[in-house]
Structure formats: C-alpha cells, structure tokens
Amino acid sequence: MTSSETAVQGDGTPSGGGGGRLTKLDPRALRHADIRIFSSASDAPLARRPTDVILLIVAVMGVVTLSFFAPGPTAIDKTFSDLVKELPGLLGWFWNICYDAMLAWAFILLVLALVARGRKRLFLTELLTGALALGFALLAGRTAGTDWSTSLHALGASGEPAVYLAVRLAVATAIVVMASPHMSRPMRFIGRWVVAFGALAGIALGVTLPIGMVAGLLIGLGSAAIMHLILGSPAGRLTLQQIATALADLGVEATDLRHAPLEPTGVALVVATSPQDKTLLAKVYGRDAWDGQFLASIWSSLWHRGERPTLGFGRLQQVEHEAFVTLLAERAGTPVLPIVAAGMATQRDALLVSEVTGRPLSSVDPSEVDDEFVRNIWRAMRPLHDLGIAHGQLDGERIVVRSDGTPAIGDLGGARVAASDGMMMADLAQVLVTTALVVGPDRAIAAATGVIGNDAFAKVLPFLQPAVLDRDTRRTVKEQEWDLDDLMKRSTDVTGAEAPELEQIRRVTGKSIAIVALIAFLAYGLISALAGIGIQNLWDELKTANMTLLLLALLLAPVSQIPQAFSTLGASLRDMLFAPVLMLQYAVQFIQLAVPSSAARVALEVRFFQRNGVDTGGALSIGLIDSVSGFVIQIFLILIITLSGLASLDLSSNNSSSSSSSSSSSSGPNLLILAAVLLLLGAIIALTIPRYRAAIKEAIPRYRENLRVQMKAGAKALRVLRSPSKVTMLFLGNLVAQLMLAIILGICLRAFGESASFAGLVLVNTMVALFAGFMPVPGGMGVSEAALTAGLVALGVPSTAAMSTAIAYRLVTFYLPPIWGSVATRWLKQHEYL
Questions:
Q1: pTM for this one?
Q2: What residues contact residue 738 under an 8 Å CB cut-off, 6+ apart?
C-alpha cells in the first residue's frame, strides 16, 4: 500500500462492512495546509523520557572512553582526517560554509523560539543548554591538557591548529538536539544534516581531530539529554483539529473527536463518531511524533510484554502492517474489528481508522459472558494461527464483546507474521488467563479443553508463566483469589499432564555471608604478604585515591551488565524482554557472592528461563552457549592483542618505580604462584573432607544422567546459532562487556595516579577473567585480585598502586554490585520471574 492508498471505497466514503477495499485517494481532495514549524502546541504537556537516560549514559561513557586517547592524534584520527581532506570535488569554501552553518542554524532556532508566541521558555532553555555544553566542553578539554583560552578560541576558529575538543560542535549540537522534540520533522532533519556536515567540515579544516569531533558531539547530546530530563520534552501529538483535517484527507467523515483515555506510547488514539452513529477509533502516527514513537517503542519493548520495537518501520509501514494483518485475518475467518481507512494524510501523518463494534472484555460484567463465548474465543485463534500469525498481547482490552454476543480480536499492530510455535503457545496462554479473569479458572479450562482437546492444551501449560503476560494482566491476577500456580494445578488435574517442575533456589544465610567474609580476609592477607606490600603502605595508597574517579567507576559498573544482557538474549531461541534479563544479570552478581556456589547461579538462571517458558534442557543450554561465546571472545582478544604486539606482559622485569623496585620484581611471579596454590588448595579440600568427597561421588552419576536427558532438549537451543542477528548479539555483547570492564579497570588505575595502554588493560582483565573462571574458588575471590595485581605490575605499574587498583576494581565490579543485585532479585520475585 503506497502513501496515496487508503482503505476507503471509490466514492470516498468509508467502508461500513467488515472489509474495506484499498483504493487511490482522489488527488482533488488534497489541499494545501499551513507549514508546521513546531511539532506541538506551545502549551503541550512535557514528559521526561527514559530514552534520555540511555542517551546520557552513552554520552558519559563515550567521553570517558575517549579520554584514554585524548588529545590525540591516534592512527584512526590521521587516517580519517586524510580521507575527509581528499574527498574529490569539495573545495575549502564548501567546508567553511558547512562549519559556519552550525552556529547559523543554532542561531535560527534561538530566533524562532524568541519570536514565536508562547515559546520564551524554549528560548531560555536553548540558551541554558548551550551554556551547559560550553562548560562541559571546556572542562573536558582542560582535563585533556587544553587550556581554557585555547578552547574558547576554538569556538570561533575555522582553521588549524587542531584543538581537543570541538567546542563549536558541542554547543551547536546541544541547542539542535534540545530543540529537536519541539520542532517539526523537516526542521529536525535539517538540523541533523547541518550538524553532520559541520562535524566533517571541522575535520577537513583542521579545527580538530576526529576524536575531538566525537567528544564534542557526545557532550552536546549529553547536555541536551540533561535538560530534557530536568524540564521534559513534548511528544509531537497532533491537536484534535489537525486530526480532523487528516481524517478528512482520507475521506472519513467524523464528528465529536476526543482523545481516548488509554494511549500506547508514541501513538495518539482518538475516538470519533461517524455519520451512521458508529464509533470510530483512529490510531494516529503523527509525522512530528515519529522520533518519539521510534524511541518509545524500543523502550517499551524492553520492559513490557506484548510490545516490540518498530525498528525499520516508518509510521506508514506500521499502519500498513496492521491493516494488512487485520484484513488477512478477517479473510481467514477470524473475527476482527473492521478497518475503515488506512493511509497517509496530506501533512504526512499516518492514520488507521477502525470501527469499534463492541466493548472490551475487561469492562463486561462476568454474568454477561457464557461458556459458548469463551469457546468462540478459542475457536477464533485457530484460523489466525493456521496463517502463522501470533497476536502477542491478547488481554482484556484486545478481546472485544460485540453487540451480538460474539467475540472479536482487536489491535493487531503488534502481530507477528510467520510466528514461531512458542509465540502461538504464548497467545493461547494469554487467552487462558484473560478468560479465567472473567469467568473463573474452572470454566476457562473447561472451555479450552473442549475446543482444542487435552493433548493440545497440555502443550500450552509450560507457557503459563508471568513473563508471557503483560503488566496490567499480571497486576489483575494478583488481585484474584487464585494465582498462576493455582491455575496450573487445576489445568494439570483436568488434563492429567505433569506440571513443569521449577528449579529450587538456595537461600542466603548468615553462614554463607560469613564464609565469604572469611575467604576475602584470608585472600587479602596472603596477597599483601606475597606481594611484599605492608598493610600500612596499602592503606596510605588507598587514602590518596581520587574519589571522583572511583565514583565514576562505580557508576559505570552496572552499565557493564547491559551488553552482557544482550548476549544472554542472543543465546536464547525464545524472544524475551530485555529489562528482566538485565535484572537477571544483577541478580547473578548478588547470588554468586551471597551464595558462593556455581550451582546456586545455575539454579537462578534455570529458574528464570523456566518462568519464561523454556524447558530445563533449553535453560541450561542458554547458559552454556552464553558462557562458551564469552570464552571464545576472551581467547580472541588475547590472541589479537598478543599477536599484533599491541601490548605484552613482562612478569620478570623490574618495576619502573624506584620506591618499590625491590619487591616488584618478585611480586608478579609470587602472585601467580599464589593463584596456583589456591587452585590446588581448593581441590585438596574438596577431596579430603568426607562430606564434600561424598557429595562429589553422589553428584557425578546424577549429573551424568541429567546431562543425557537434557542434551536432547538442549539440542533445540543450539538452533540459535543459525540466526545471524542472535549470533551478533551473542558475540558482540560479550565483546563490549569485556571492553567496558577494561575501561573501568583503567579508571580505577587512574584514580591512583597511574596509567596503562588500553590494549594492555584489555589483555590483563581478559586473562584474569579467563584464569579465574577455572578456579574452584567462589567468585574468584583472592585469585582475581592476585592475578590483577600481577598483571598490572607486568604493565609497569608500581606494586602498591597495582594492588590498590585491583582492590578498587574488584570492589566496584564484584563486592558492591550485590547491593543493587539484591534489589534486582527482589524485583524479579515481585514480578514472578523467580
């Protein structure tokens, strides 16, 4: 369906029946409209968006990472600068115009806000954002060694010498991005192109290096994100008058327009009345709200079941997708809400208009719903699934009770075509819970088994988990006298099938915490003794630490789990929400310290995946695939760095610091010997203590049998390696996680006044992570600290600073994360993911 096609009849009137036909919109109906400069009215409500938090985090992380290489030039800087300067057909005057255009466009945005009615607040906000970016840029430049006057001069300079960082780009980007949600889409596009070409022009003119341009861009983005979080930003929602005009463009006559009480994020819902007194529901994807729809859809899909990101989907494509799936389902015999119109209006706003023919099931009195109605819902799912279409969110709002007492399925915008069997089973599990909320568990189960039979119904039960349901449905279930476990038990009693058995999770006890504290105390005592560092020297070194940098490392530590969560998503064949998987990563950090046992961590992960409808074999396979991919990435990094000569470790050389040279030459080998001793000690303890020895003997045959049973189930999970997108998430997530941990290690090292190459930090951290993973010591306590100290000493760091860095690094990445990990564990339990 093209932009000029709509689901209206040839005479321009809406189709009143179940299926409208797609025809061309009469060009004579098009008319010129006023040009939009601003996306929303001056008094439009403002909202703080979680996506700005992500943008701010990315900006901070990027600036911190670039500080390791500042002020340059790096090899990449030289290569990219030469490439830009040698672009054919572009003379110096072109680059000068582009570089000056950044300030000119920022000035235009300021003037528009100043002269427009009711936009004085926007004008002041733009000024404040530009000033904030200027301050951050001067501070970042000063940190890299550029004095204040040189940075200020770079704001007006248009030629060499190159300065770190691009102050003009930072200020212009901050103003453009700050104003972006307030401006119409064409204005936003102009601003983006002006900034992009201005950044290239700065490199071509020699004003700054690529590293400085990227840093300036990140500071501008971060400054705008801060102001958006403080003051909020508009969503670009159309007014009712604009929506009425758009409906008229599509040939839909409607009166009594009003905003619907419930609206999906980034999309406007408007209820109207047709000339035939029928209720119409218009879903409006505004042209100027597209950015909000795109970012909001990503954020919502990370947190909420039934919502998925519309990556690659423009507003017209979203309308076309829902219209196509709805018409396809209707043709197959599935009762749906009829489409009245779908298409693009003159002002490039996309609309989907459907006829509301009933009431949501959630608003109907249970006494009005009989067993035949419930059975008809199950019958309606069969033709939909025969087409390979999964709805994705069959709750009480999407299932409609029509005036004749029959059900209908609405809101197919999030439906999946060519859906997997798991998605379809999730649909049926949602239907079971939704109907049970209305007519009770027993009647809902009876209706389901009466339509699809006991055998087919038994296949739905593994998906009867909280993770399959959306947030509102889970909240409603908590208000009932029954819960999902009770619904599962009643279902198995009827079908005779066995309920999926969930893995038991070990509890945190005072004994386990005491064991952890004792191991840590002994480990640090051994490390300091073998490294030749007195406790007083170590304490004096710790007191000199830069607390600001250590705080920054602590703030970045939780962020390092984000790419690890993406890796776990890549290891899973089933689609899962990002946010619960991220909470799982934090919970693992808690359990591996509070209950120092690999079995406890495995039990936690298996329990989580079971709650997402994955069987035990598949759950174990997800963890195995994720671990193996991490191992592959670690080996890859070690080989690349060592073979290329980017960094090397010299454990036998004397330390560069004269004050500690006597001990540095032997501390590295001693600490490696300590790690080997700890490994041997753990094996001896496990084999000599009768209770542990007996437990090992009993566990070997049991695990062997479980492995044999679960290998068959786990083989299915290996199909994830056939998906390029899954493999990319799997390996890229582990790679980014390793690099981020190296950045945190570098920040901790700088906190004690020392530095090392980024490649060297990656090599040390990766080798230590790989080495500690083979140790039978819980969490690598003692082993990791010893190996980190030895590795940093081998990079030329004094022993005292090396051990202090190892302690600080382990503190922010291992010993403190259980604080927020315990909160994540509680969140997972509250939302029934554990």
A1: 0.62
A2: 633, 634, 637, 762, 765, 766, 769
